[in-house]
Amino acid sequence: MIEIEGLSKIYAGAGRPALKDVSLSVPKGAIYGILGRSGAGKSTLIRCLNLLERPTTGRIIVNGSDITQLDKAGLREHRLRTGMIFQHFNLLHSRTVADNVAVPLEIAGVPKVLRQARVDELLYLVGLSEKAQAFPSQLSGGQKQRVGIARALAARPDVLLCDEATSALDPETTASVLQLLADINQQLKLTIVLITHELEVVKTLCDHAALLENGEVVESGRIADLLIAPWSRLRQALLHDPQAERDFLARHGFDGRPLCVVA
Ligand SMILES: Nc1ncnc2c1ncn2[C@@H]1O[C@H](COP(=O)(O)OP(=O)(O)OP(=O)(O)O)[C@@H](O)[C@H]1O
User: Which residues form the ABC transporter domain (predicted)?
Assistant: First the structure.
Protein backbone atom coordinates (compact mmCIF):
# COMPACT_ATOMS: atom_id res chain seq x y z
CA MET A 1 0.00 0.00 0.00
CA ILE A 2 2.91 2.33 0.80
CA GLU A 3 6.16 1.71 -1.08
CA ILE A 4 9.08 3.87 -0.04
CA GLU A 5 11.83 3.68 -2.66
CA GLY A 6 15.36 5.04 -2.27
CA LEU A 7 14.30 7.89 -0.01
CA SER A 8 16.96 10.38 1.08
CA LYS A 9 16.66 13.62 2.99
CA ILE A 10 19.41 16.17 3.45
CA TYR A 11 18.42 19.21 5.50
CA ALA A 12 19.87 22.51 4.34
CA GLY A 13 23.17 23.13 6.10
CA ALA A 14 23.22 19.69 7.77
CA GLY A 15 26.53 17.83 7.87
CA ARG A 16 25.03 14.40 7.11
CA PRO A 17 21.83 13.09 5.53
CA ALA A 18 18.91 12.52 7.91
CA LEU A 19 17.75 9.63 5.64
CA LYS A 20 19.90 7.57 3.29
CA ASP A 21 18.40 5.41 0.56
CA VAL A 22 15.49 4.20 2.67
CA SER A 23 13.27 1.56 1.05
CA LEU A 24 10.32 0.01 2.89
CA SER A 25 7.10 -1.71 2.01
CA VAL A 26 4.06 -1.15 4.23
CA PRO A 27 1.23 -3.59 3.43
CA LYS A 28 -2.41 -2.48 3.62
CA GLY A 29 -3.82 -2.98 7.12
CA ALA A 30 -0.37 -3.39 8.74
CA ILE A 31 0.71 -1.83 12.00
CA TYR A 32 4.24 -0.86 11.09
CA GLY A 33 6.67 0.28 13.80
CA ILE A 34 9.71 2.40 12.97
CA LEU A 35 12.28 2.06 15.71
CA GLY A 36 15.58 3.77 16.30
CA ARG A 37 17.61 5.88 18.67
CA SER A 38 17.30 9.63 18.98
CA GLY A 39 18.50 11.24 15.76
CA ALA A 40 18.15 8.03 13.70
CA GLY A 41 15.71 9.74 11.29
CA LYS A 42 12.34 8.40 12.49
CA SER A 43 10.51 11.74 12.58
CA THR A 44 11.97 12.77 9.25
CA LEU A 45 10.76 9.53 7.69
CA ILE A 46 7.22 9.74 9.04
CA ARG A 47 6.96 13.43 8.10
CA CYS A 48 7.97 12.53 4.54
CA LEU A 49 4.92 10.24 4.36
CA ASN A 50 2.56 13.22 4.36
CA LEU A 51 5.12 15.57 2.84
CA LEU A 52 5.43 17.74 5.92
CA GLU A 53 9.07 17.21 4.90
CA ARG A 54 10.01 17.00 1.21
CA PRO A 55 12.42 14.14 0.50
CA THR A 56 15.59 15.16 -1.32
CA THR A 57 15.43 12.08 -3.57
CA GLY A 58 13.31 8.95 -3.84
CA ARG A 59 9.67 8.04 -4.32
CA ILE A 60 6.74 7.35 -2.00
CA ILE A 61 4.06 5.34 -3.76
CA VAL A 62 0.70 5.37 -1.96
CA ASN A 63 -2.09 3.33 -3.54
CA GLY A 64 -0.23 3.35 -6.84
CA SER A 65 0.69 7.03 -7.16
CA ASP A 66 3.90 8.80 -6.25
CA ILE A 67 2.94 11.44 -3.69
CA THR A 68 6.14 13.42 -4.29
CA GLN A 69 4.70 14.30 -7.71
CA LEU A 70 1.26 15.50 -6.52
CA ASP A 71 0.07 18.99 -7.37
CA LYS A 72 -1.38 21.27 -4.68
CA ALA A 73 -4.91 19.84 -4.91
CA GLY A 74 -3.59 16.27 -4.94
CA LEU A 75 -1.44 16.95 -1.90
CA ARG A 76 -4.41 18.43 -0.01
CA GLU A 77 -6.44 15.31 -0.81
CA HIS A 78 -3.53 13.05 0.24
CA ARG A 79 -3.19 14.83 3.58
CA LEU A 80 -6.91 14.37 4.27
CA ARG A 81 -6.48 10.65 3.55
CA THR A 82 -3.51 10.49 5.96
CA GLY A 83 -4.31 11.10 9.63
CA MET A 84 -1.56 11.96 12.08
CA ILE A 85 -1.25 11.98 15.86
CA PHE A 86 1.54 13.57 17.85
CA GLN A 87 3.47 13.10 21.08
CA HIS A 88 2.12 16.37 22.53
CA PHE A 89 -1.33 15.99 20.95
CA ASN A 90 -1.30 19.38 19.09
CA LEU A 91 -4.89 20.23 20.09
CA LEU A 92 -6.33 23.73 19.71
CA HIS A 93 -6.74 24.94 23.28
CA SER A 94 -9.36 27.58 22.55
CA ARG A 95 -11.68 24.99 20.95
CA THR A 96 -13.84 22.36 22.62
CA VAL A 97 -13.13 18.67 22.14
CA ALA A 98 -15.92 18.43 19.54
CA ASP A 99 -14.61 21.46 17.65
CA ASN A 100 -11.06 20.03 17.63
CA VAL A 101 -12.32 16.79 16.11
CA ALA A 102 -14.27 18.78 13.50
CA VAL A 103 -11.19 20.58 12.13
CA PRO A 104 -10.41 18.14 9.24
CA LEU A 105 -14.11 18.10 8.33
CA GLU A 106 -14.15 21.90 8.11
CA ILE A 107 -11.06 21.77 5.89
CA ALA A 108 -12.75 19.16 3.71
CA GLY A 109 -15.84 21.42 3.39
CA VAL A 110 -18.26 18.99 5.08
CA PRO A 111 -21.58 20.78 5.91
CA LYS A 112 -22.16 21.56 9.59
CA VAL A 113 -25.03 19.13 10.12
CA LEU A 114 -22.97 16.21 8.76
CA ARG A 115 -19.94 17.35 10.75
CA GLN A 116 -21.92 17.12 13.96
CA ALA A 117 -23.00 13.52 13.27
CA ARG A 118 -19.45 12.46 12.34
CA VAL A 119 -17.96 14.12 15.44
CA ASP A 120 -20.50 12.29 17.67
CA GLU A 121 -19.60 9.00 16.01
CA LEU A 122 -15.86 9.59 16.48
CA LEU A 123 -16.15 10.65 20.11
CA TYR A 124 -18.17 7.50 20.78
CA LEU A 125 -15.46 5.43 19.04
CA VAL A 126 -12.72 6.82 21.31
CA GLY A 127 -14.88 6.71 24.45
CA LEU A 128 -15.19 10.46 24.97
CA SER A 129 -18.83 11.23 24.17
CA GLU A 130 -19.40 12.92 27.53
CA LYS A 131 -16.40 15.24 27.00
CA ALA A 132 -17.62 16.81 23.75
CA GLN A 133 -17.99 20.28 25.28
CA ALA A 134 -14.88 20.13 27.48
CA PHE A 135 -11.72 22.06 26.60
CA PRO A 136 -8.34 20.31 26.20
CA SER A 137 -7.04 21.82 29.47
CA GLN A 138 -9.78 19.88 31.30
CA LEU A 139 -8.59 16.50 29.99
CA SER A 140 -5.97 13.96 31.09
CA GLY A 141 -3.06 13.10 28.76
CA GLY A 142 -4.75 9.89 27.65
CA GLN A 143 -8.01 11.72 26.92
CA LYS A 144 -6.12 14.37 24.92
CA GLN A 145 -4.54 11.64 22.80
CA ARG A 146 -7.98 10.09 22.25
CA VAL A 147 -9.17 13.47 20.94
CA GLY A 148 -6.08 13.49 18.71
CA ILE A 149 -7.02 10.05 17.41
CA ALA A 150 -10.65 11.05 16.79
CA ARG A 151 -9.49 14.14 14.89
CA ALA A 152 -7.01 12.10 12.85
CA LEU A 153 -9.79 9.70 11.83
CA ALA A 154 -12.36 12.39 11.01
CA ALA A 155 -11.84 12.46 7.25
CA ARG A 156 -11.82 8.62 7.03
CA PRO A 157 -8.10 8.26 6.24
CA ASP A 158 -6.51 5.09 4.83
CA VAL A 159 -3.37 5.60 6.89
CA LEU A 160 -2.73 6.80 10.42
CA LEU A 161 0.75 8.14 11.22
CA CYS A 162 1.70 8.14 14.90
CA ASP A 163 4.66 10.24 16.00
CA GLU A 164 5.71 8.95 19.45
CA ALA A 165 2.01 8.92 20.34
CA THR A 166 2.40 7.42 23.80
CA SER A 167 5.77 8.84 24.90
CA ALA A 168 4.15 11.49 27.08
CA LEU A 169 1.79 9.03 28.79
CA ASP A 170 2.13 6.82 31.89
CA PRO A 171 2.28 3.02 31.37
CA GLU A 172 -1.41 2.38 32.16
CA THR A 173 -2.64 5.13 29.86
CA THR A 174 -0.16 3.99 27.20
CA ALA A 175 -1.68 0.50 27.35
CA SER A 176 -5.22 1.84 26.85
CA VAL A 177 -4.20 4.07 23.93
CA LEU A 178 -2.34 1.15 22.29
CA GLN A 179 -5.45 -1.00 22.73
CA LEU A 180 -7.54 1.71 21.08
CA LEU A 181 -5.11 1.82 18.13
CA ALA A 182 -5.29 -1.99 17.82
CA ASP A 183 -9.13 -1.85 17.86
CA ILE A 184 -9.18 0.89 15.23
CA ASN A 185 -6.77 -1.09 13.02
CA GLN A 186 -9.12 -4.08 13.20
CA GLN A 187 -12.46 -2.26 12.94
CA LEU A 188 -11.55 0.26 10.27
CA LYS A 189 -8.89 -1.83 8.44
CA LEU A 190 -6.67 1.20 8.83
CA THR A 191 -2.94 1.00 8.05
CA ILE A 192 -0.91 2.40 10.94
CA VAL A 193 2.70 3.60 10.75
CA LEU A 194 4.14 4.56 14.09
CA ILE A 195 7.49 5.74 15.28
CA THR A 196 8.72 4.97 18.71
CA HIS A 197 11.85 4.37 20.71
CA GLU A 198 9.90 2.07 23.05
CA LEU A 199 10.27 -1.65 22.29
CA GLU A 200 7.18 -2.26 24.39
CA VAL A 201 5.04 -0.40 21.85
CA VAL A 202 6.35 -2.60 19.05
CA LYS A 203 5.82 -5.70 21.17
CA THR A 204 2.26 -4.83 22.09
CA LEU A 205 0.98 -3.50 18.83
CA CYS A 206 3.03 -4.01 15.67
CA ASP A 207 3.02 -6.81 13.10
CA HIS A 208 5.84 -5.23 11.04
CA ALA A 209 8.88 -3.21 12.09
CA ALA A 210 11.94 -1.44 10.75
CA LEU A 211 15.06 -0.44 12.62
CA LEU A 212 16.71 2.83 11.60
CA GLU A 213 20.30 3.76 12.37
CA ASN A 214 21.96 6.97 11.26
CA GLY A 215 19.27 7.46 8.63
CA GLU A 216 19.54 3.94 7.19
CA VAL A 217 17.24 0.93 7.50
CA VAL A 218 19.30 -1.84 9.09
CA GLU A 219 16.47 -4.37 9.12
CA SER A 220 12.78 -4.45 8.30
CA GLY A 221 9.86 -6.75 7.62
CA ARG A 222 7.23 -8.91 9.28
CA ILE A 223 7.95 -9.38 12.97
CA ALA A 224 7.13 -13.10 12.61
CA ASP A 225 9.95 -13.32 10.01
CA LEU A 226 12.40 -11.25 12.04
CA LEU A 227 11.80 -13.55 15.02
CA ILE A 228 13.28 -16.52 13.16
CA ALA A 229 16.18 -14.61 11.61
CA PRO A 230 19.27 -15.38 13.71
CA TRP A 231 20.98 -12.15 12.65
CA SER A 232 18.05 -9.95 13.63
CA ARG A 233 18.85 -7.26 16.18
CA LEU A 234 15.16 -6.61 16.63
CA ARG A 235 14.70 -10.30 17.44
CA GLN A 236 17.32 -10.08 20.17
CA ALA A 237 15.80 -6.92 21.57
CA LEU A 238 12.20 -8.14 21.38
CA LEU A 239 12.93 -11.47 23.07
CA HIS A 240 15.04 -9.91 25.78
CA ASP A 241 12.34 -9.94 28.46
CA PRO A 242 11.58 -13.60 29.30
CA GLN A 243 8.31 -12.82 31.06
CA ALA A 244 6.61 -11.24 28.09
CA GLU A 245 8.28 -13.58 25.59
CA ARG A 246 5.72 -16.39 25.57
CA ASP A 247 2.69 -14.13 24.94
CA PHE A 248 4.59 -12.21 22.32
CA LEU A 249 5.66 -15.34 20.43
CA ALA A 250 2.12 -16.73 20.57
CA ARG A 251 0.76 -13.50 19.07
CA HIS A 252 3.11 -13.93 16.12
CA GLY A 253 2.13 -17.54 15.44
CA PHE A 254 4.69 -19.47 17.48
CA ASP A 255 3.38 -22.17 19.79
CA GLY A 256 5.57 -21.70 22.83
CA ARG A 257 8.34 -24.17 21.88
CA PRO A 258 11.83 -22.63 21.57
CA LEU A 259 12.41 -21.04 18.21
CA CYS A 260 14.31 -23.30 15.82
CA VAL A 261 17.10 -21.15 14.47
CA VAL A 262 18.90 -22.32 11.35
CA ALA A 263 22.36 -20.77 11.16
N1 LIG B 1 14.71 20.77 10.43
C2 LIG B 1 15.91 20.20 10.52
N3 LIG B 1 17.02 20.86 10.08
C4 LIG B 1 18.24 20.29 10.13
N5 LIG B 1 18.49 19.07 10.64
C6 LIG B 1 17.44 18.37 11.10
C7 LIG B 1 16.10 18.90 11.08
N8 LIG B 1 15.25 17.96 11.61
C9 LIG B 1 16.03 16.92 11.95
N10 LIG B 1 17.33 17.16 11.66
C11 LIG B 1 18.46 16.22 11.85
O12 LIG B 1 18.17 15.03 11.13
C13 LIG B 1 18.58 13.89 11.88
C14 LIG B 1 17.35 12.98 12.10
O15 LIG B 1 16.43 13.67 12.94
P16 LIG B 1 15.00 13.08 13.30
O17 LIG B 1 14.30 14.11 14.14
O18 LIG B 1 14.34 12.60 12.08
O19 LIG B 1 15.42 11.81 14.22
P20 LIG B 1 14.55 10.96 15.23
O21 LIG B 1 14.98 9.55 15.07
O22 LIG B 1 13.10 11.25 15.04
O23 LIG B 1 15.03 11.53 16.64
P24 LIG B 1 14.18 11.70 18.01
O25 LIG B 1 13.84 10.32 18.48
O26 LIG B 1 15.17 12.39 18.93
O27 LIG B 1 12.99 12.55 17.70
C28 LIG B 1 19.20 14.40 13.17
O29 LIG B 1 20.59 14.45 12.98
C30 LIG B 1 18.63 15.79 13.30
O31 LIG B 1 19.52 16.63 13.99
Answer: 2-239
Q: What is the CATH number of the domain that holds 21?
A: 3.40.50.300
Number of domains in the chain: 1
Contact call for residues 126 and 117 (beta carbons, < 8 A): no
Helix (H, G, I), strand (E, B) or coil at 6: strand
* Model pLDDT for residues 110-141, shown as the tens digit of each residue: 999 999 999 999 999 999 999 999 999 999 99
Task: Give the domain extent around 240.
Answer: 2-252
Q: Which of 148, 185, 150, 204 is nearest to 27 (CA)?
A: 185
Q: Which helix (H) or strand (E) holds 212?
A: strand 208-213
Measure CA of the first residue to CA of the last residue in the chain; give whole Å: 32
One DSSP character per residue, 222-245 reads EHHHHTT-TT-HHHHHHT--HHHH
pTM score: 0.91
Amino acid at 39: G
Residue 201 located in a structural domain:
yes
C-beta of residue 22 within 8 angstroms of C-beta of residue 69: no
Q: Which residue puts its alpha carbon closest to atom 8 of ligand 1?
A: 44
Other residues' Cβ atoms within 10 Å of the Cβ of residue 250: 11
Q: Is the ipTM of this complex over 0.95?
A: yes
Residue nearest to atom 11 of ligand 1 (CA): 18
